[in-house]
Design goal:
alpha/beta; elongated; 212 residues; Maf protein
Length: 212
Amino acid sequence: MINGEFNGRNYSKLILASASPRRLELLRQIFPTFPIEVLVCELDESIEENEKPIELVSRLALAKAKGVASKYGSACFDALIIGADTEIVLAGKVLGKPEDDSEAETMLYSLSGRSHEAITGFAIVNPSTKQQFVNVVSTEVSFKNISEKTISSYIRTGEPIGKAGAYGIQGKGAILVDGINGSYSNVVGLPLERLSESLETIFQFPVWGGDL
């Protein structure tokens, strides 16, 4: 990196098309000094009829990135836009985000003592060239057998609300997890391993700095 800019393909910044502080933290983890801007657009995230989970996260991730490109126009010039959507899938069913404590309780009971998938679709869009790429990563997550007392205590923290599947593995929800098979960052909301690989090989974005 020279004078704050990467050599090679000169992207001025990365744009995260998500208001999730967890995704921003993950991006900062691998790009601590490169400019990252958060821009979002309103989007209907409802599941379409007969839509499979992989299709859902792919569609929403791309829609978020393209929506930001369309909404902000010139502000995205010379940038790469990253969109993402994470869902918790149990026995083929998307659990979504609980709207209240009762729904969170139902979700947590259903996850107790079982394995489920955390799937994230991510999209990378170059608005200048119209190039776009979408991929999906799945991680298997196994839950402990959770007692009624533990579920009640966890719900009282407020953490389940607004979280897919009613838990956050990066927070106190980690206590509920017995183990994972796959990418941890994917469960949090952004699969850094696959994202960095895609940025480097498909968009020639030098993730390690320097001239590739």
